[in-house]
Write a structure and sequence with these properties.
The complex is a heterotrimer of chains A (about 250), B (about 190) and C (about 375). With about 250 residues, chain A is α/β, with parallel strands linked by helices. Helix content of chain A is about 35%, strand content about 15%. Chain A is globular. Chain A starts with about 30 loop residues before the first helix and ends with a strand. Classes of the chains: A alpha/beta (about 250), B alpha/beta (about 190), C alpha/beta (about 375). Chains in contact: A-B, A-C.
Chain lengths: ~250, ~190, ~375
C-alpha cells in the first residue's frame, strides 16, 4: 500500500470552525456559502469567535445563520440594522454583524440601513447581493439590474416600468457616520480573496469603534437568474459587476 | 396521486402537467401543492385528484391510489397516505428506500439516467411523468405533451423539445397499461 | 423619598428607570413625546441608552434587539404609531422576548389594538390600563416584572390625560419575587462553543442543538398565554355586591365613572362600578360575579364600542349589556373630547336607568 498523499485532505477538514455543519440546502452554484465562509474565517482570525452576535434577515442566507456557531437572532425583513443597533448599544464590546440579501436590505430595509449608517452605529452590515429575491423564486428587487428577467419583470427590467437599480453602497459612502464601505464579489478566486480582506477590514474597524462598516458581496444565484449553474460566475461579471463595480468606496485615510 | 421530490426536480410542473392533461381530457381535477421557501433541496410535494364527475375530495389526501417519487428524501411524508396495493412509480436513479406500502406495485424507472442519455438532465421529472402516464393510462401521452407545451413558462421555452423527448422516452421505457387507472372498480375510488 | 410635582410622562420614565430599564427608543408623537423626552434626559445618567429613532418601526426593532441581549428595554408611541409596531410586537411574543411598550394614546380608547393587536400568530400582550398617574407608576414597574417573568411583550395603556397631568408623587420602587436567570439572552459569549444560542420564531435550532420547530414552539407559547390568562387578570370592583346596575370602564374614563357612581349611590341608587385593570387578560370571571343579578351593565368607553364585546362575552346576563359611550375627540385631535366629563356620563347613566332593561343599546 502506498503512503497517503500528504496534499490530499478530506473536504470536511476545510469546514470553518464557526460552522456547526456544512450540510446546507442551497442551490448548486450559489455564492452565499463562499461569501459566508469569508465572514466566519475573518471572525476566527480576528479572535472574535466568542464575542460575536449575528442578526440575520430573511432569505436563502438565513440557513447560514442556522448552521453557524454564533449567538444569533433572526429578525424581521429589512430591520436587521435597527435590531443590531439595540444589540450593539447594550453590548458595546461585542462584534455585531448583520446579514441581509438585497431584497431584505435595499428593498424592504433601505430606511433602516441608511439611518444606521448615518448614526454611525458600530456594527458591520453585510449585504449578499445577487440582484434578485432568490428564496421566493426569482423576483425583482431594488438592485435587480436593467435587462434582468425575473418573474416580476418577465421581459427584463425596463426603466420605464420598473425604474432603476439602487447602489446602496454609494449612498452609504456619502454619509458621515459610515467608516468603511466596500463591495466585493465571489465569482473568481482573486475576488474571493480580495473580498475576504474587505470583510476583515470592516470587522477590525468596528472593533476599533470607527463607525458603521459595510461590505457588499456580489454573489451568484443561477436559479434566480435562470441561467445554468456553471454560467453563474460569468453572468455575475457581465450583469452585476458591470452595473455596480468592485472596490473600497470609503475607507479611513482615503 | 401523490407526488414527492426535492426542489429543482420539476415535481410541481410534473403535477401541474398531469392535472392539466386530465382536464384537457374532460376530467374533473384538483391540484394541491405543498412546498416551503427556498428554491432547491427542500420538500416539494403535490396531490392530484382526478375524477370523471365533480370532486368532493379534501385538499389533504389520504388513502391514495398512486405515487410518483423523484427522490427519497420526503417519501416518509407520502407513504402513510397511500392505500394498500397502491401503484408506486419511482425514479430508480435516486430512490433507494423501502417503499413500505403493503401490497404495493412498484415500477422503477431510471428517469435520471434516461434524461442524461437524452442530453436533458433537467427533464428527468418529465421522463418519470411519461412513464407514469403510460403505465396507468391516466392520461394519454399526446395530451401530456400538449399540456407541457402550455405550461412551460416563457423563460424556459428553450427546453420544450427536450421536455417532449423526455415524456416520450419515459412512456417508451415501460409497459403500457401495466397498472391501469381507469379499471371498473378503481373508477369510483379514484374520483373521490 | 419625598413627593415631587411630576408630569405623568416624567413619573413613568422614572418608574421605568427604577425598574432597571436601560434601553429606550421612540419617535416623537403626541402625547407620547414627553415620555421620549423624559427618557432622553434621564436614561443616560442612569447608564442607559435612549435613541430617538427615525421611525416607529425602527424604534420597536431596536428595543427588540436590546431585549434580546437580556436588557430591560422599552419603546412606545400613541395608538397611531403603535399601529406601525404591530409586526415587531408579535415577533417579540413569538420569540418570547420581554419587551415593554408604552401607549400614550390620543382620544380614542383603542381597546382592540391593545388586546387583539394587529400582528400575526397566536400571541397576546399583557396589557395594563392605569386610571391615573400613581397607578401608571406602579403599573410601569409591574410590566417590566411581568414581561421578564413570562417572557412576553407587555403594554401600558396610558393616554393624553395621564401623560400630561402633573401630581405630587413619590416614585417608590416596588419589590417583586425573584426572577429566573435569562439563560436565553444573546451576549456573544456562547459563539464558538458549539452551543451558540439562537432566537428565531421558527425555533429550528442549530445542528448541535436542534429546536422543536414552529409547530411545537407556537403551541407551547399558546399554552403559556392560556396560563397567563388564568393567573394574571386584575380588576377593581366597587359596590357591585348589591348593585342592580354596574358601569364598566377602563383607564382615565374610570375615574369619572367612580365619581358619578359614588354620587348616585349617595342618592340611593344600587349602582356599582367595575374596572378591568388588565385589559388582557380580561378579568372575565370577576366581571361575571360582579354583574350577577344586575338588570343593567353599562359600558362607558370612548370609542364606537370595543370593550363592550368582551363585556358581553363575560357578563352574567349578556342581554343586560348596553354601550353608553361613544367616539369622542377634542378639536386638536390629540385628546378625549366632551364625553370625558362627569355631567355627560351622569346624564347617560340616568337615561339608561330611566329607559330600563327594555331599551336597546346604542350598539
Amino acid at each position: 500500500m502506498s503512503a497517503p498523499d500528504p496534499a490530499a485532505h478530506p473536504v470536511a477538514d476545510f469546514k470553518p470552525d464557526l460552522l456547526q455543519s456544512a450540510e446546507h440546502e442551497l442551490c448548486p452554484g450559489c455564492g452565499h456559502p463562499v461569501a459566508w465562509r469569508l465572514v466566519l474565517e475573518a471572525l476566527t482570525d480576528l479572535g472574535l469567535s466568542h464575542r460575536t452576535v449575528l442578526v440575520a434577515g430573511h432569505g436563502c442566507y438565513t440557513q447560514m445563520m442556522k448552521l453557524s456557531d454564533l449567538d444569533s437572532l433572526q429578525c424581521l425583513h429589512g430591520r436587521a440594522p435597527a435590531v443590531a443597533t439595540g444589540v450593539k448599544r447594550m453590548l458595546p464590546q461585542t462584534a455585531v454583524v448583520t446579514l441581509q440579501g438585497d431584497g431584505d436590505m435595499v428593498s424592504e430595509g433601505l430606511h433602516e440601513v441608511l439611518h444606521a449608517g448615518a448614526r454611525g452605529e458600530r456594527v458591520t452590515a453585510l449585504l449578499f447581493n445577487n440582484g434578485v429575491f432568490g428564496d421566493t423564486g426569482g423576483h425583482l428587487t431594488a438592485t435587480t439590474v436593467l435587462g434582468q428577467r425575473t418573474k416580476t419583470s418577465l421581459e427584463g427590467r425596463d426603466p420605464e416600468v420598473h425604474g432603476y437599480p439602487i447602489d446602496v453602497a454609494r449612498l452609504l459612502a456619502q454619509l458621515d457616520g459610515t467608516a468603511y464601505v466596500a463591495r466585493g464579489a465571489v465569482n473568481s478566486p482573486g475576488l474571493v480573496a480580495r473580498t475576504g480582506r474587505m470583510i476583515r477590514r470592516a470587522l477590525e474597524l468596528q472593533m476599533a469603534g470607527a463607525g458603521f462598516t459595510f461590505v457588499e458581496v456580489l454573489t451568484m444565484c443561477p436559479t434566480g437568474w435562470f441561467v445554468g449553474t456553471a454560467e453563474g460566475p460569468d453572468y455575475l461579471e457581465e450583469s452585476m459587476m458591470a452595473t455596480f463595480g468592485i472596490g473600497e468606496l470609503k475607507a479611513p485615510g482615503q | 396521486m401523490l407526488f414527492t421530490g426535492v426542489g429543482g426536480q420539476g415535481v410541481q410542473i410534473a403535477a401541474r402537467t398531469l392535472a392539466t392533461a386530465a382536464m384537457d381530457e374532460g376530467r374533473h381535477v384538483m391540484l394541491v401543492p405543498r412546498y416551503g421557501g427556498g428554491m432547491r433541496g427542500g420538500m416539494t410535494n403535490a396531490e392530484v385528484t382526478v375524477g370523471d364527475r365533480p370532486l368532493r375530495a379534501l385538499p389533504v389526501a389520504t388513502d391514495c391510489w398512486s405515487a410518483y417519487a423523484m427522490d427519497p428524501s420526503y417519501w416518509s411524508t407520502v407513504r402513510p397516505h397511500l392505500r394498500p396495493g397502491a401503484v408506486v412509480v419511482v425514479n430508480a436513479s435516486l430512490v433507494d428506500v423501502e417503499v413500505g406500502v403493503e401490497g404495493a406495485t412498484v415500477f422503477s424507472v431510471e428517469a435520471g439516467a434516461i434524461a442524461d442519455g437524452l442530453g436533458a438532465p433537467m427533464a428527468a421529472g418529465f421522463v418519470l411523468l411519461g412513464a407514469y402516464a403510460s403505465l396507468t393510462g391516466l392520461v394519454g401521452v399526446e395530451t401530456l405533451v400538449g399540456a407541457m407545451r402550455q405550461l412551460v413558462p416563457p423563460y424556459r421555452t428553450q427546453h420544450l423539445e427536450a421536455n417532449e423527448r423526455a415524456l416520450r422516452a419515459g412512456a417508451a421505457a415501460v409497459t403500457p397499461l401495466a397498472a391501469p387507472a381507469w379499471a371498473a372498480g378503481d373508477l369510483e375510488r379514484a374520483g373521490r | 423619598m419625598t413627593r415631587r410635582l411630576l408630569q405623568g410622562s416624567e413619573a413613568v420614565a422614572e418608574a421605568a428607570i427604577a425598574s432597571g430599564c436601560r434601553f429606550f427608543s421612540g419617535y416623537p408623537m403626541l402625547p407620547f413625546t414627553e415620555l421620549l423626552e423624559s427618557m432622553a434626559k434621564k436614561l443616560p445618567a442612569a447608564g442607559g441608552v435612549c435613541i430617538s429613532a427615525e421611525s416607529e418601526i425602527e424604534a420597536v426593532n431596536m428595543a427588540l434587539g436590546a431585549a434580546a441581549t437580556g436588557a430591560r428595554a422599552a419603546t412606545g408611541s400613541c395608538g397611531q404609531g403603535l399601529a406601525l409596531m404591530q409586526e415587531a410586537i408579535a415577533e417579540s411574543a413569538l420569540n418570547e422576548l420581554p419587551l415593554v411598550v408604552f401607549n400614550m394614546a390620543r382620544g380614542q380608547q383603542d381597546y382592540f389594538q391593545a388586546t387583539r393587536g394587529g400582528g400575526w400568530g397566536d400571541y397576546r400582550t399583557i396589557t395594563l390600563a392605569p386610571k391615573d398617574v400613581p397607578e401608571a407608576v406602579a403599573h410601569t414597574q409591574l410590566l417590566f416584572d411581568l414581561a421578564d417573568r413570562h417572557r412576553t411583550p407587555a403594554l401600558l395603556y396610558g393616554d393624553y390625560v395621564i401623560a400630561h397631568t402633573s401630581v405630587g408623587i413619590e416614585v417608590a420602587p416596588l419589590a417583586f419575587p425573584p426572577l429566573p436567570e435569562k439563560d436565553w439572552a444573546l451576549d456573544g459569549t456562547m459563539s464558538g462553543t458549539g452551543r451558540a444560542r439562537q432566537i428565531w420564531t421558527w425555533a429550528r435550532g442549530k445542528p448541535n442543538t436542534p429546536g422543536p420547530g414552529p409547530n411545537l414552539a407556537w403551541q407551547a407559547i399558546a399554552d403559556k398565554y392560556a396560563e397567563i390568562e388564568r393567573t394574571e387578570a386584575r380588576c377593581e370592583a366597587e359596590g357591585t355586591d348589591d348593585a342592580e346596575v354596574v358601569v364598566v370602564s377602563f383607564g382615565t374614563t374610570a375615574v369619572f365613572v367612580d365619581r358619578v357612581v359614588e354620587e348616585l349611590r349617595a342618592e340611593g341608587v344600587r349602582i356599582g362600578s367595575f374596572r378591568p385593570v388588565t385589559l388582557w387578560p380580561f378579568p372575565g370571571a370577576a366581571l361575571a360575579e360582579a354583574t350577577e343579578g344586575c338588570r343593567l351593565v353599562l359600558v362607558y368607553e370612548l370609542n364606537a364600542g370595543q370593550m363592550v364585546d368582551d363585556v358581553r362575552i363575560h357578563a352574567a346576563d349578556r342581554s343586560a349589556v348596553r354601550s353608553i359611550g361613544g367616539v369622542s375627540q377634542d378639536a386638536s385631535g390629540m385628546r378625549q373630547g366632551d364625553l370625558l366629563a362627569a355631567d355627560e356620563l351622569r346624564q347617560r347613566v340616568r337615561r339608561a336607568l330611566a329607559d330600563g332593561p327594555a331599551a336597546r343599546s346604542a350598539r
